[in-house]
Write a structure and sequence with these properties.
The structure holds 2 protein chains of 2 kinds. Chain A is mainly α. Chain A is built from 15 helices and no strands. The chains are: A mainly alpha, B mainly alpha. Chain A: Keywords: Cell membrane, Membrane, Transmembrane, Transmembrane helix, Transport.
Chain lengths: 300, 269
């Protein structure tokens, strides 16, 4: 039916137009900008000289680059490792039905629904060196000396040592619900009969997890980890609100650095270059994930 | 008995994980002086509504701006995503799978890249500091999500339904409006709620595409409030509580949509 095909295109047209104008063009524009000396002046004169790979060279040779990459990796790995482990533990806990299990589990979604600026502000208040509840709790539990040699309040947000753990802690809290929900959905899809059979074979709880839950959960695990990676590598709000990338760039990641280059230093070309490197990294991980997924599928 | 032990443990877990929210609420009700004591008060015994007064006084404009941007984003997202999903799910469009795959991929583009680029584009168009710019920018995040969600819902609508209408002589547009849209109401609510929530929570586009001369959404309002030298935690936390209201309402009113939305954002099909 040709009329149906024409109608299909007509209905799809606004979306196609939107993709081209608001994804295609910006991505292209970003690529062009990264090869231009694009500054505030360019906005008025419309003149941005072509500089080839100069922006990329400037960015890569900037001492900040290695720092931002290392910070991005520690932030991402630290966040995901804990989000995933805690999310999985909670998913397993709530997978057994008990009175109130559904209600309690859905309450745990709240941190995920809140604006990140709100979560960031709350944690910034809780991690305040002198008046924050975290240091008050550490003091009350006599744990301060474990974290801080002097035993005084931990300078979470003002020291180069503790600011990264502080933003990771905040981001873990934000990310737990997502891991919990997706992994819980995966657990629900595993047939009870498999557990019954394992129990008949005399498998204990750990063996049931190791030989039934974990292998059957693997596809969902892959999705959660990959999405976690893609989301975490580009986190902006949490870091901006909790530490602003400081102190002394200790929490500066590729994302916040790109923002700083463009909107603080007005070096839009360099900001675009860092943004493109970020896209490259995210795509690289995506491809790597796809390959690993295929390999594990072939092996199975 | 063992089941109730689990419930008790579950309560403890929820208590620990949601403690930051209680702490925000607690601080929003305590006078600023009390917040700066060496050991904090666990309950707002000498409570005050000063924080809320300050929040409503200084943040009112930001709240209104956020409502306008969020509602606008919902309208644009649904207007684009509904017909597209109908085409992808019910009419055989060539290249449909490619479009769906693209929707999945574009969600992975870092927001900072979009912000960087949209800033220069909107700058040339004179759209910086306009509601339109923020609505269009926020839609870049909500439209792909809405299309994936609505598409997977509309795949489940039997094709016979729209085919019957077409046989009866209704146009495609008529079929879409009087059959597809009413049947898809639940999925539309989910997509709309998530679009609202995303736009409400957006900070990156809000801070890059506005200069504060005309208006600023509430997320930027909180950020600027935080940056004040004399951080008034009572007022900041009251503002944070107000900014959390849409999320809380969503969780209470539309709980089952939330899980549906979360999973459909993550898993295709």
């Amino acid at each position: 039916m040709t009329s149906q095909r024409a109608a299909g295109l007509a209905f799809l047209f606004p979306a196609l137009l939107y993709i081209v104008v608001f994804f295609g063009y910006p991505l292209f524009n970003n690529l062009v900008m990264s090869a231009q000396d694009y500054t505030v002046k360019s906005f008025y004169t419309g003149d941005a000289p072509f500089v080839g790979f100069a922006n990329y060279a400037a960015v890569v040779h900037n001492p900040m680059f290695v720092r931002a990459v290392v910070n991005t990796v520690s932030f991402t790995v630290g966040s995901i490792a804990f989000q995933f482990t805690i999310g999985l533990a909670l998913a397993l806990f709530f997978n057994d039905r008990f009175p109130g299990s559904d209600t309690l589990r859905s309450l745990l979604l709240l941190p995920w629904l809140l604006p990140l600026v709100v979560s960031g502000a709350v944690w910034r208040w809780m991690l305040d060196q002198d008046h924050g509840i975290v240091n008050a709790a550490l003091r009350a539990l006599h744990l301060s000396h474990l974290l801080h040699p002097s035993g005084g309040p931990v300078p979470w947000l003002t020291s180069t040592t503790w600011s990264m753990p502080a933003v990771i802690l905040t981001n873990i809290w934000v990310g737990i619900p997502f891991n919990l929900v997706i992994l819980h959905g995966g657990l629900r899809a595993i047939p009870d009969s498999l557990y019954e059979a394992a129990a008949l074979d005399g498998a204990n709880a750990w063996q049931r997890f190791r030989h039934v839950t974990w292998p059957l959960l693997r596809p969902v695990t892959g999705i959660v980890l990959m999405l976690g990676l893609v989301y975490t590598i580009k986190v902006f709000d949490v870091i901006m609100v909790v530490t602003g990338g400081g102190p002394a760039n200790a929490t500066q990641t590729l994302t916040t650095w790109s923002y700083g280059l463009s909107f603080r230093d007005f070096a839009f070309g360099q900001g675009a270059a860092v943004g493109n490197i970020l896209i490259l990294a995210a795509t690289g991980f995506g491809v790597l994930y796809a390959r690993l997924a295929r390999q594990s599928m072939d092996a199975a | 008995m063992r089941a109730y032990g689990r419930t008790a443990l579950g309560l403890v877990i929820v208590g620990v994980l949601l403690f930051p929210l209680y702490w925000m609420f607690n601080a929003s009700l305590q006078p600023s002086g009390a917040l700066l004591k060496p050991s904090p008060d666990l309950f707002p015994v000498a409570g005050t509504l000063d924080g809320y007064r300050a929040a409503l006084g200084t943040q009112q404009g930001h709240l209104v701006a956020s409502i306008i941007v969020s509602l606008g984003t919902v309208a644009v997202s649904l207007a684009v995503a509904m017909p597209a999903s109908y085409a992808l799910a019910q009419l055989e469009v060539r290249g449909g799978p490619v479009v769906l795959f693209a929707m999945l991929i574009v969600q992975m583009i870092p927001g900072i890249v979009m912000a960087n680029s949209l800033y220069t584009v909107f700058g040339h168009l004179g759209l910086i500091d306009s509601y339109l710019a923020l609505i269009l920018a926020d839609s870049t995040a909500t439209i792909p999500f809405a299309i994936l969600l609505l598409h997977s819902f509309m795949m489940a609508i039997p094709k016979e339904l729209s085919e019957a209408a077409l046989v009866d002589g209704a146009s495609h547009w008529r079929t879409f409006i009087s059959i597809i849209v009413p049947v898809s109401r639940n999925a539309m609510v989910t997509a709309g709620l998530f679009s609202f929530l995303f736009a409400w929570a957006d900070f990156l586009f809000a801070i890059t595409l506005t200069t504060g001369q005309t208006f600023e959404p509430i997320t930027v309002g909180i950020y600027r409030f935080l940056g004040n030298q004399s951080a008034d935690w009572n007022g900041i936390m009251a503002t944070a509580v107000l900014a959390s209201i849409p999320a809380a309402i969503l969780l209470v009113v539309a709980q089952r949509y939330v899980v549906a939305g979360m999973t459909s954002g993550a898993i295709k099909d």
